Amino acid sequence: MQENNATSTTETEPQPLITVERFWIGLVVVLLLLGLTLFLGLFFLPQTVYTLTLGWISYLWRVVPTLTLSISGTLWFLCTLSLFLIGVHLVGRKLFRGTPDTVKRIESTKRVSRWRLRWTATLVSLLLVLITSGISLIGISHQLWWMAAGDQRALLRERPLSLFYPVAFIEGQRRRASLSHLKQIGLGMHNYHGEHDQLPIGATVDATGNPHHGWVARILPYLDQPDLFQQIDFNQPWTAEENRQVFEKPLRVLENPGLSYDFKPGDIQQTDRSRYRPAHYAANQRLLGLNGGLRIRDIKDGTSHTIMGGEVKAGIRAWGNPLNIRDPARGINQGPGTFAGPFGPGANVLIADGSVRFLSEDIDPAVLKALSTPDGREVLEENPSPSGNTKGGQREH
Fold this sequence. Notes:
By secondary structure, this protein is of the alpha+beta class.
């Protein structure tokens, strides 16, 4: 009899849902699927999982240090939330009566029927989650619409599935930031011209040919950096020890978020790579030349047909280097000394009227040369194509 009981007990013992063998089999399957995904180049799948599960951690890591706590706003929020909690709790207590069966059950167990505080906290928390979710959905919808109808249309035409890639959002934001940097530089140039009646000198050199200072140093007050400008000794070269500390300061407006590096090997001396800060944008040497600056009225070709500067991704100079100027007529993306951008086969360039255009690396050399000279008197015929690009390989933003 005892043996039968032991047998029956053994037979009815619940088996564990996850055994050691099942765990290892599942782990191997997951690793194989992950390896197959990476082998096929489907990087967006693990990236999507990471973004949806842990992406908020990296987001908070980037955003929280930039936030400024408003004491008055925080107190106002806490007071409003407290009043809302009190109101919900009072309304809940007043409306909560219970059905007759509930009342009888409560009376039989000698418990008091009342609206509980934790119910109020749960209800308010649920409402806050719903409000946050609604705001998030609005933001996602706005971002998707911007990608479909805004600056990312070209990207979607070439890669339709990029609509679902998290990297597409990041790439679009970086591209827009670069465009904004170029427009800020253009605004600084025009504000400098408004005060000095000429554009800044591209580079100054002394009688022996040693470079002193460049165009960036002169427009610092118009890039919201007046303190840095006051610290520069313009009687000394930019490489002088008295000026080194200034030019080691980063200027975010001159750093292209589309580049994952400050300098490339060979751009600057190895001993200085961790000290001087880069300029990922250069000026047009035909417009901002040596030891002299043009006036707007000297641009005979028109400000809307003359390049002022643009993106660079190789041959990068420090932002204090006076030689941070290039000749656009040499081509787009044609070598370390030419303009080139990280957002496609071409570069975003700043036009003298303050606008920004994307120039394809396949642009007609004659058109590019005409855009490079301020007074070449060339005639440009812009014949827009159905896609919105001009005949010369330009796209305006």
